[in-house]
Structures are given as C-alpha cells and as structure tokens.
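Entry 12.
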Amino acid sequence: MIDINCDMGEGCGNETLLMPFINSANIACGYHAGNASTMQQVIDLCLQYNVNIGAHPSFLDRENFGRTEMDLSLSQIHNLVTEQLEILNELIKRSGAKLHHVKPHGALYNMAAKNTGMAHAIAKAVKSFDPSLILYGLSGSKLIAMASEEGLQTASEVFADRTYQPDGSLTSRALPNALLTNTDEAVKQVIKFVKENKVISVSGAEINVKADTVCIHGDGLHAVEFAKSIYQKLHEI
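Predicted 3D structure (tokens):
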C-alpha cells in the first residue's frame, strides 16, 4: 500500500487522532512551527504507533507559517536544513529512535520543486547529514531529480488535499481552488494516484504523476476525516 504521510507538530493538536491512519510523520522543527515539547510529543506518538519519523524543515518564518518565499543563498539553504535536522535528531536519538526521512515545508518545498540550485542545496544537506535518509518531494520536481543525482533514496509525493496545475505543480494557496475540502473528492483523487499514476488538474487535463507517498496536511480542516477515509479505502483495494 502507498505510504501515507502527514505534517505534524504544527500546533493543531490532532496528532493522536491522526496516528492510526498514517505511515509517516513530518515533524515541524521549530522554524515555522513547533518547539522541543511538540517535537518530543510527536516522536513519542510515532514510537507508540510504529510510524516513520521525518523532519519537516522550513524557512525561519513563524509569522507566516513558512509559507512566504525568501531569497536566501544556497549556503544559507544548506545551513537552515542542517540546523533543523540537528535539532530534531537530538531528540530522536534521546528517544532511542531513528530519523527516517526529510520533507521540506511550505515555500521551501515549493521553491525547491522548481529551482535546481535550491533543490541541490537541500539534497546535499540531507546527504551530508545522513545519506541513508529518504527525501520526500513533489512528484516530477527538481527536488526529486537533484536528490536522485546525489544518490539519495527518494519518495515522490502526491497530495490528497491539494489541487494541481496542468504543469504538475500545486495550485497556489493564494487562489480560491487550492484546497480540496470534500472527503469523497480527496479519496477519489488518491485512488486515481494509486491506480493510474494520474491526477486531473484544475484545467481538466489529466497529468501523469509518480505516487510513492500521499500527503494529508495535519493543519487541514478535515485532516482526521480525510486520513481515516483514505486509509480505509486504500485497504479495500
């Protein structure tokens, strides 16, 4: 079955409800949300529910939840990813666990999907920290390409709760149709990912995707309902 991942430790408080329905958690490392306490709480839940522990590094931008683009040098990108991996990994090691994967957050994720230099900087940071880590990135993105070039394992990601542009990118959150809010529509989109490796874009055009892991945003209004329904449906097929 496809891996189901969820962004967590972002202040929503629904982690315990989501854990039974996911395989991998992406834990906010304090730069866009979270702190040592929330990180530890999610780590403990991951261990309890046998969920993969991942890092969710972001721009240092708590004010905008890491969703505002920033113009940083490639060395700054490398350093901010490394710093967040170190912060989270220290807690993981104390818990007797192991970091499994890295998935950038928000604007960092979306910029790296299209910017080769940024994607390469992130991939090199992950490889330098631990070459056994899996880098999660948007299906068909520069991030996946650069991670593969660096010899990292990758997981091409698709989204249960987001709409797509004809070029395979996610619809900007600044637009009104960026999010899927209907459970049946989200489940239908995930089934198409899994069975056909395709998604219908906002233009109506069908586009190809590679679906190794599907994301459900933990801060989504219907996150728990989506996760439960998608989990159950995937176990039926």
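Annotation: The radius of gyration is 16 Å. The chain has a mean pLDDT of 97.
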